[in-house]
Amino acid sequence: MGILNVTPDSFSDGRRFASAVDAIVAGRALMRAGADILDIGGESTRPNAKPVSPDEEMGRILPVIEALAKDGAVISADTRNAATMLAALESGARIINDVSGLRHDAAAAVVVAGQKCPVVLMHMRGSPMTMNCQAHYANLVRDVLGELAGIRASALAAGILPEAIVLDPGFGFAKIGGQNIELLRALKGFSALGHPLLVGVSRKSFVGAASGEPDADRRLPGSLAAAIFAVTRGASILRVHDVRETVQALKMWRALTGAPAGSAKEV
Known about the structure:
By secondary structure, this protein is an alpha/beta fold. The chain has 9 helices and 8 strands. Helices cover 41% and strands 10% of the residues. Helix 1 packs across helix 2, helix 3 runs parallel beside helix 4 and helix 8 packs across helix 9.
């Protein structure tokens, strides 16, 4: 899942693709690099990010979705807002990726259930403005697993089909520092919920802390190591900035291990 943030303030690539033209060019480059899915978002969800209105969000992403869908891209709309979800699907998106697990907007689950589209449900406490203040757990892995199971149960109760659900433990979202390492080590346990797992660790601050690299744009080696580790622990989808490099790393890992090509999505 190649990351395409059409925002001025995302933590790593904010402002780079803030115009629709630049974002479309970047999306086509991600497709050529080997992305299976393009995850297009118009609202930064980095720590302390301020929310934007659905209208502003749609203004940023809908032209990009329309153009790249016409190119044949499989598009995931990265949004918490029901109105944006519906407009994105009508513009050519096929998947919804909601960092709030459909809890931010009461109408979101209704939209996803009605459209019968795949959805990524992520674990997060609070909002991007407050999540790091809520990174306190009695037992990190048990608590995140239980809360994610509750998010999944709510989606099923809303009429979303089990086979449409992908789960994301939410690395960096209400998890700080070494909590992310602990959660990544325990990723296999999340397979017990019975859904494909998406892992997004690309360039994140815990990768920088563990590797001693403060600059997000220089965290490729650490991000690749974390991505391959995630695949060995059951990840089906990797959400990454550096598509070409991740695809190459996965191919090499498969060559060395004899793992089948279908053992993880190169995205």
